Amino acid sequence: MALSEKELIEIRRKLHQIPEIGMEEFETQKMLLEIIEKFPHDFMKIKTWKTAIIVHLTGSKGQTTIGYRTDIDGLPVEEKTGLPFSSNHKGRMHACGHDIHMTVCLGILSYFAEHQPKCDMTFIFQPAEENASGGKQLYESGALDEWMPDEIYAFHDNPQLPAGAIGCCMGTLFAGTCEIHAKFIGKSGHAAFPHLANDMVVCGAQFVNQIQTIVSRNIDPIESGVVTLGHFEAGTTGNVIAGSCQIDGTIRALTQVNNLKIQERVRAIAEGVAKSFDCDLELDLHQGGYLPVENNDETTQNFISYMKANKDVEFIETKPAMTGEDFGFLISKIPGTMFWLGVDSPYSLHSEHLAPKEEAIQKGVSAMIGFLEDRQRQL
Length: 379
Description:
Largest sheet: 8 strands, mixed
Number of domains: 2
Strand order of the largest sheet: 1-2-4-3-5-16-6-14
């Protein structure tokens, strides 16, 4: 029997109690495997890679492989929801709703394990979405090669949408991100003798100021972008000139073209400032697997058309978000669609108070089973 709504909620609450940081999801993997092992195995195969789980269902015709991905990691957040099933892991929480993601995936998998699909299906339980580009690591490991999807789907929960509502849009759903880590190295000295030192507070301030011109003067206003510097550290006390300065921040852009353009400008400005201050520069622009989630036109139009036509689905056309998601790497390699599942919470993703409404789970499972069955009739 496919998992019932009551069983799904029980599973979600158990998963919620054991959040783990990316690539450390050992307890989570163990629980997921115990659940999956109880499903019929007539046409199912299972393998693992590190803390990832990959489940393959052989279809009755099997000419095409449809992929479905969920992330499984938690965040380093101390939970303050007050729920009776709050996290048992101190300083860890499913504050991004990945417990909801996993539960919906299990619900879909349990159905197709009972009802053999026409197409082959690959279900991916992916680690380290939050911290270590888990999707990129998994793809590049070769673990997916045997069961590589021809198209792939995934969702992210959305506290701002009604519980169970499906949100999506053509084009970019999530921005691509890139970390900025810049260290300027000059020469410290006594505050009374600036001519004998090389002041990196002044140098760093020039870098911060010039960075502000990138989005306003180098990026098409219609296309947008974000460069935020959230950390500036220099010096030890007021009467000592700082000999080094560490600045950290992030880039967000809705296309990979613009992300790379912003990275180029950050690098050019950093190198120019370093040259003008005759100091050394250590610059790390780290994007990893956090490419923009650029939905495929064909799969996304089909997905939106189905959801709009389904009278049991509340479909909402959404705007792109500047948050990042490492599904962007997978979707750059495999055509597919990412969408939102509403969970109706007054608190945002990553909040220590986030408490998604559980009625979203069954609605998400039912909507995706219907869509995936319809999609297979087309292929």
